[in-house]
Amino acid sequence: MKNSWLKEVLNTSIYLLIVLVVTYLLIVFVVQRTVVNGSSMEPTLIGTDILDADKTGDNLLVDKITYRFSEPERFDIIVFPYQYTGEYFIKRIIGLPGETVQIDEKGYIYINGQVLVESYGKEVMLNPGLAADPIVLADNEYFVLGDNRNNSKDSRDPGVGNITRDEIIGRAWLRIWPLNRFGILQHQ
Question: What is the residue-wise DSSP string for the chain?
Answer without folding.
Answer: -HHHHHHHHHHHHHHHHHHHHHHHHHHHHTEEEEE-BSSTTTTTSPPBBTTBTT-PPPEEEEE-SGGGTS---TT-EEEEE-TTT--EEEEEEEE-TT-EEEE-TT--EEETTEE------SS--S--GGGGS-EE--TTEEEEE-SSGGG--STTSTTT-PEEGGG--EEEEEEEESGGG-EEPP--
